[in-house]
Amino acid sequence: MRRLRADLHQRDLGNGYCTRPPELDCSFESVCETCTFFQTTSELAPTLRRQRDHAVERDQLARVDLFNLLLERIAEEKIA
């Protein structure tokens, strides 16, 4: 039931999902990928790759590392 309830409250972020329960307010607009409630899937890997490439072009190394980490997690889930 907990998983079903969580699925009903996911909010689409474009490159993943926010699973923060609705009763917990969030005032952040641009740190979703580093939040513990952020989840993504293999279907969104192309978007994450584009975001990583955009960060590479702008020498935003911390963001490059972040997107690489997210892409690695997706790859590991596919293997498991």
Offer a few descriptive terms.
80 residues, mainly alpha, three-stranded antiparallel beta sheet, 3 helices
Give the helices and strands as they follow along the chain: HEEEHH
Global structural class: mainly alpha
- The whole-angstrom Rg is 14 Å
Shape: globular
How would a textbook summarize the main sheet? 3 strands, antiparallel
Helix content: 40-55%
Q: What is the first-to-last residue Cα distance?
A: 24 Å
Low-pLDDT segments = none
| Lateral strand order in the biggest sheet | 1-2-3
Question: Helix count, per DSSP?
Answer: 3
User: Roughly what fraction of the amino acids lie in strands?
Assistant: 5-15%
Number of strands: 3
Global mean pLDDT:
87
Total number of distinct structural domains: 1
Write the topology of this structure.
Layout: H1 2-8, E1 11-12, E2 17-18, E3 38-39, H2 45-57, H3 61-79
Antiparallel strand pairs: 1-2, 2-3
Plain-language structure description:
The protein has 80 residues and is mainly alpha-helical. It has one domain (2-79). Helix content is 49%, strand content 8%. The protein has helices at residues 2-8, 45-57, 61-79; strands at 11-12, 17-18, 38-39. Strands 1-2-3 form a three-stranded antiparallel β-sheet, with no helix packed on it.
